[in-house]
Design goal:
Helix content: 55-70%
Structural class: mainly alpha
Largest sheet: none
Number of helices: 14
Number of domains: 2
Length: 261
């Protein structure tokens, strides 16, 4: 990538605007640089005084770009996402609208939702449920990306939205949903209650996930795990591991005869 976060803000801003501007600018090039910027903001790699200087240089120009752009401008949603990640009010308003609009492409809605999460916009909590409600197979990218970033939300709505959508979630997305809900005690408790009530199958959680929940510092989570699965061993069985090690040594030592066994 031509740009690095260590560049001086004014140089980086000029490079971004040059890539976006002019008749010679390509859609792919513009999308790449905007995706790069959004990723650096999301990860926190761009932060502090340098990020603020870059914001001051870029956001007014980005705002002009998306406010003047037609609805079908291929870069409009990407520009909005970057400006919204920097908490620009005009961009946040457009991002909320994009994330909620079922008529827009899933990739645009996902970028808008991710920007709202990065900006810690309160609307992201409610829009998470909207993202999970996408039923069109072509829109699967939206709930997938929503599940990936929702771990940064801190709201009970997250667990409620996932559990309400569980039956509609693609089987390939359900493990992501379980990982998400297992990441916070309050969400894990809601998941365990749903399993106990039969709304989510016990098999949705693997053995390692169950053991991890048993190690929770929240006694309510531990009690609920034991209510559903009973008391599981939290430690390894050294005798069993010794037998396995001896058998492995026996198999791998000495010459083998594939005919005699």
């Amino acid at each position: 990538m031509w740009a690095e976060p260590s560049m001086r803000p004014e140089v980086l801003a000029r490079g971004v605007l040059d890539t976006l501007g002019g008749e010679g600018g390509s859609v792919d090039g513009g999308r790449s640089v905007l995706a790069w910027l959004a990723a650096k903001l999301e990860s926190g790699e761009l932060k502090g005084e340098r990020a603020e200087a870059l914001r001051a240089a870029l956001v007014p120009e980005l705002r002009k770009r998306f406010e003047a752009a037609a609805a079908d401008d291929p870069l409009r949603a990407d520009v909005v996402a970057v400006a919204a990640s920097w908490r620009d009010e005009a961009a946040l308003a457009v991002a909320r609208s994009l994330a909620a609009d079922g008529a827009r492409p899933a990739i645009e809605r996902a970028a808008a939702f991710e920007a709202l999460v990065t900006a810690r916009d309160p609307a992201a909590n409610e829009l998470f449920a909207t993202a999970l409600a996408a039923e069109d197979p072509a829109s699967a990218e939206l709930p997938r990306r929503a599940l990936v970033v929702a771990g940064r939300l801190d709201a009970p709505e997250v667990a409620r939205a996932v559990l309400a959508a569980w039956g509609r979630l693609d089987a390939g997305l359900q493990p992501l949903a379980v990982e998400l809900l297992s990441s916070r005690a309050a969400w894990a408790l809601a998941l365990l209650e749903a399993i106990e009530a039969g709304r989510v199958p016990r098999e949705a959680l693997g053995v390692n996930q169950v053991r991890n929940l048993l190690a929770s510092r929240d006694p309510r989570v531990v009690a609920k795990v034991e209510a559903v699965w009973g008391k599981l061993r939290k430690d390894r069985n050294p005798q069993r591991e010794q037998v396995v090690a001896e058998m492995r040594s026996l198999v791998t030592s000495g010459p083998g005869d594939p005919v005699a066994g």
